[in-house]
Structure formats: C-alpha cells, structure tokens
Amino acid sequence: MEILRVEQLIKRFGGIVAVDNVSFTLQKNEILGIIGPNGAGKTTLFSLISGTEKPDSGKIYLNGEDITNTKPYHRALKGLVRTFQIVRPFKSLTVEQNLHAPLTVRKIHFNQEEAIQLLKKLGLIQKRNIPAAYLTHGEMKKLEVARGLIAKPRILMLDEPFGGLTVAEIGEVTSVLREYYEEGGTLVIIEHRLRELMKLIQRALVMDQGKLIFEGAPADVAKSEAVIKAYLGTDTVI
Amino acid sequence: MITSEAAATVLVYGFITSLVYALFAEGFSLIFGVARMIDAAYGMWYTAAAYMSFALVTVYNIPSLVTFFATIAALFAAGFVYYWAVLRRIKDHIEMIMTTFLIALVIQNLIVLLFTNFPWSTPVVLPGSTLVFGVSVFNQQLAAAIAASTLLILLWLLIYRTKVGLAIRSVAQDLDAAVCVGIRPERTMALVLGLSTALAGLASLLVTPQSTITPVLGWPMLTLAFAIVVLGGLGDYRGTLLAAFVIGYVEIAVQNLVSPLYSGAASLITVLLTLWLRPKGIFGRSVE
Amino acid sequence: MKRLDKIFVVTLLAVLAAMAVLPIALNLRFIIFILTLTNIFAMLAVSWNLLSGYMGLLSLGHSFFFAGGGYAAAILSISYGVPPVAAVFLGALVITGLGSLIGLPSLKLRGHFFALVTLIIPIIAYQVTNAIPQLGGHDGIFGIPSLFQSAEAFYLASLAAMAGSVMVSYLVMRSRLGIIFTCIKDDEIAAKAAGIDVPRYKLLGLAISIFIAGVAGAFYAYLNGVISPATYELEKASLPLLMTLLGGRATILGPVVGAYIIEILIETLKIEVLVRARLLIYSALALLIFMIFPSGIVGFLRRKVYGDTAG
C-alpha cells in the first residue's frame, strides 16, 4: 500500500538545483535508504518532505492527501516525523522530558514506563533526568531517534542516524528501528555508512547533483554504472 | 492644498534631516552587516557624545574644534574597547541585546548622575541663518548637512576604495574565507565597532548644538537607526542611504504637513509595517 | 513530591501569611503603600519572566502592556462606569487583545528583531497617547476611582494578585505548556519537527504574559489615581528586566525576590545622591549578575540546595 508519493520535486538555491525533478513512492511498512555523494540533495529532499523548506514546484502526497503546502508541524502531527543530521535536542529539557515533548501536542498519553523501556534499549537510561545539553554527541543522536519513535509516526525519516556513533551504539539504534519496523512502521533513512545501511534497508534510492540516478534493490546499487560514475566522478573516468 | 512654501520647507529640511540620519544609521548598518551584531547601546553613544562635548565646551571652556576632535577620538576608542572587552565574548544574539541594553542603561544612568535629567541647552557654534530655496535654515544645520554629506562620501571611499575597506567587506561576506586569506577578523571587527561609535558621535555633534539634550536622547535614535537599517535591507550601504531618505522625508513631511506630534510615530510605524509586510526590507536579507 | 519540596511549599505559605498579617497587625501604614507598589512590580516582573525568561522572547517594551492595562482600566471605569474590580480584568483583557494583535506579525521575526520591535512599540504608544486628547494627552487621565477604600484592603488584593500570578506561572511551567515553551526557547525548528505549532503557542505565551502585565498596570493606575504617558517610558520597561535578572531568570520566585530587593533598596536609598544613582546601581548590578551569575540569586540558591543539575 502506498503511503508517501513525491512527484517531480524541484528546489533551487540561487543558481544550484539542489533537488532536480525527483519522484518516488514509498510503501507502507517498507525501509527505504537514500544514499549519494555529499551535496547530492538528500537532506534538502528531506526538508522538502518534512516541510522545513518549500519546493519551487512538485507535489507531495501522504496517504493520497496533498500535503505540499502544509506547515511542518502539521505534517509531523499527521505522522510524518523526521530527525536532523546535525542534532537538535531540546537542551534545557531532561532526556525524559525530551521524549515527553512530542506527546504534549498529540493525543497519545505519555507513558513513562514505555519511555523508560525505550531509553533502556538505547543505553540512555542512566541519563534520564539529565538536561540534554550534557549528553555526548552519540547520546544526542540516539535521543533524536527515541524522540522520533515515541511519537508513533507513520513514517520516520532519519537523517544520518549512525553519524558519529560507535559500533555498539549503531547496534542499539538498529535494533529499536527493526522493532519499530516489525510493528508495522515505515522508515526512510539517509546514511553514509553504507555497510550498516544496506543490511537494514529493502530498497535504495541514489541521488547525485539533485537527480535521482538509481532506484532498486540494495544488492544492485554497486552494479549500477550511473552510481559508480557518480561516486567516482564522471569526467575523470573517460 | 500644500503651498509651495510648505513643499520647499519639506524638501529642504527633509534633505538635511535625511543626511544626518544616514550618517548615524550607516554606523549601525556597519556593525550589523560586518560583525553581525546588534548594539542596543548604539543610541547611547549618540547621547554620550552630546554630553561630552557639552561638558567640554560649557564647563571647561574648551574651544569647539578641539572638543569636536577630542569627542570623536574618545568615541572611536570607546568602540574599540567595547568590542574587545564585551562584544567579542558574546555569541548568542539575544544575550547580546540583553547585555548591550544593560550597558546602555548603565551609561544613561551615569549621565543622569553627572548631569541630572535637566534638559540642558547646548551652545550655538555657528550663529545666523541662510536662505536656501526660499527657506530659512540655521547655519548650524546647513553646516551639518554639508559635513554629513562629506563624511558619507568619505565613508563610502573608505569601504569601497581602500585596503581596510576590502578587509571589512571580506569579513562581512564570508568570515571563514576572510580568515583564510590572512585577514584578522577580530581586528577588523574592533575597527568596525570604533567606526560605528565614531559615526554615532559625529551625527550627534552635527545635530545637538543649538538644541536641548536629555539622557534619554539616544533611545529614539536607536529605534530610528534600526528602522532605517531594516528598511534598507540590513547592512547594505546604498540601501541604508536610501532608507534614511525615506524615513527622513516621512518624518519631516508628517511634521510639517500633519502635526509634529505624530512625526516620530509615523516613521516608526513605517518600519513596523515594513517588518510585518516585507521583512526583507526594500532590498536585502530576511529578518525572519 | 520530594521532602525538600514540601518544606519549601510550607515555608512559602508561611511567608505569604506573614506578609499578609504583619504589616497590617503592626499598623505600618507607611510601609503598606510601598509593599503594595512592590507587589505590583513583582507581578510585572513575573509577567516578563514568563515571556523573556521561560520562552526566550526578549521583551524590552513591557511598559506598553503595563501602561496599556492601566489606561484601559482607567477609561473603562471613568467613561463607561465599569466597577473597578471588573475593570481591572476587562482592562487587562483589552490590552491582551491589542498586544496580541500587534504581537502576531512580530512573533514571526527572528528573536533579536522581536526584541527591537518591542523597544519601538512603547515609543509609538507614548507619542500616540500624547497626541490624543481622548486619552488625556500629555497630562494623562486623572481622578481614577480607588479600587478599595482602605489601603489595607488594596495591599491584600495586590498581594493576592501577585501570589496568583506566581501560581499561574508555576502551573503553566509545570504543565505540558511548560515543556512546549521550553522546546520553543531551545530550538524552534526542532519544535516544529516535533509537531508543535510554534506561532500559536508563542502567541498563547505572549497573551498570558500581557494579561498579567495588564492586571499589574491596572492596579498601578488605581493605586496612583492617575495614569500618564510617562508610564510607557523606559524605566517601567527596564524595571521588570532588572528585577528578574537580579532574582533569577527562568525561576518561579526569582522575579518576586528581585522586585522586593530592588524596591527595598529604593526605600533605603533615601539619601539624595543615592536616589539619583539608584537606577545606575540597579542596572550595574543587573549587568554584573547577568555576566557572572546568569541564573540570578534564586538560580544560585537552587543550585546550592538541589545540587548542580537539578532542573
């Protein structure tokens, strides 16, 4: 069942076309990975879908409803939740209050036991009553994932969730994400750490210079000539 | 409707007022554009210059010209110290406004302590008046207009035609890149702060003779500078100049054609409407 | 509730009871007026703290809401014959509506521009009020009927209103609104991503803050029997800021503690030179505290009692 549809999105910043005519669809209960070299437009695509940026043209549909012109918090309340590449915890709130925050504006009751379980799985339980400002970078990254999950999103979009994490921390994050998926969740993940990502995702999109250059199974990514060219740089090969 | 006499008055006085406003606002614009700082104490430098020159001339009987240069030198130095001692350490915008606001209160109350709240009359430096397009203008104001235009041209030359100006513009455009080509940003910013406080002082010295001064003189001037800089697109030399003329003429027109009671409010309402309807100013960066 | 919290609440109630009973029982008439004024400014500081301390929306023009509340209540009771007690709340509602209307477009601006806009608004209000005879012009509005016949009753009412405003800010910050306000202060973009309708909650916070400031302003107008454009001036805008910085930003009791310290200082500084220097002393003190102890006296004490990281 289709849950998200993106049609011909275009976003320009000055002379640069950051997202160039990108279209794709996302199925319910799917894990989609988005990869590509730096500056390919992945984060901009996320910002367009989550509403932080407005597209110059194109449409975005969530469950068949056109959400192109809705506000970011509106999309979040409809279940389209994102995390940020550069972490943005609420620094003066404690770790637990950070989990409470998204539920203050939702009809979901804040279940402390559930929050504690989630924090345990992510190795954050000892820091529960500490303001988020005092966390390490990796802990903040995990807190963002937890803050996304606690809102019970229909789609969770993660921007480099493994960035700067240790191998053990990646394991913790992967396992809570898998759990969410097994309970019917849908994930879109931008990630540079391809080895860890490929094990998790079912389908991959590859972007380069704003364009979508590959769509298919993770196993086929490395076989695609377009992808190899994008990562190596076209001009130098010939 | 509007008599030709009233129109001439608005034209002439609007021009003079706008020039002085431009000079004052260019200083605020400079800190904003280059150092990306908002100095809530900017109006206080204006007040401080007025009181310093007042004290030197009337209390210590020092000649006007010496007073003029001494005051400007003192303000330039104050800006320099201000940057190194205070502004350099503050990263957050809100914290900066809070700190500079408190500093402004301290300076203002220091002035109250030394001079009381009494509205002192400042002495005349250039007596007499001249007819300009049939409008009688005090020589003091005429001299202010000529000095302000000269200073505005000099400032333009400094920013766009000298090496120092190049450094200032590089820091304004891209701090990291400027550092890479060997510019020391802290020195440049200290210089910019010195320039800005000196400009506030210059504007003050051109206007405050032959008037009355009070310790709260600087606050309307701060909001005025803010108004002009927002209207002009935040930190752009030409934009600020143009916006100063818009605000200057709005104020003088309302003052002469409607009522002096509304002149200050009119220009401030102009800027509020600009902020609300077109946050980017006439041309330039967004404030949202 | 922790044991420490219980002791704290009991102590607080005892202090409040003592404040209500002692000045009246000892018949300290000359102090009662001063304490009434202190309660009014404490309310104003509580209001400022809610907006600028907790929500991070720096207001340099709280005098607009304060004077506006005073003017609205005065006009309501003189020209429309509204009974004073009702006029206090209606007046506060009027200024809340007006302030929110002006605030609505300004809240979209980035934080430092919002601060500068708040600096402009009272200046406009001052000039407009000065120019409109219906608002009393330069001289202001005279002969505002008294809120209560006896000074004691007025004092008790001001104490109750002040305690009420503290209670409101406590309840707000303890509720889900408190979390939402803190999110907005910490990171607006992340707050939006978490689903928070940032403009709406900013407006709500602004409205609560204006209402409290408006009530304080109405009390002020009734206490003096007159309200003039001078109330818009910078002193009234900077006092709540200085009081809150002194007592402790983003703490519940900070503004009240700061208000009492400053008002007691005012009364102690009766010597002529010191009276003239009082604003210099406060601003220098606030600047020092802001730079050295950003969380003020109450924040400092709380760290001593609860340990370093307790929220």
Automatic annotation (TrEMBL), chain B:
Domain of life the protein comes from: Archaea
Major subcellular location class: membrane
Localization in the cell: Cell membrane
Stretches that traverse the bilayer: 12-35, 42-60, 66-85, 97-120, 140-160, 189-207, 239-255, 261-277
Record's GO cellular component terms: plasma membrane
Keywords: Amino-acid transport, Cell membrane, Membrane, Transmembrane, Transmembrane helix, Transport
A GO MF label: transmembrane transporter activity
GO biological process: amino acid transport
Membrane disposition: Multi-pass membrane protein
Pfam families reported for this sequence: BPD_transp_2 (PF02653)
Family membership: Belongs to the binding-protein-dependent transport system permease family. LivHM subfamily.
The name this protein goes by in its record: Branched-chain amino acid ABC transporter permease
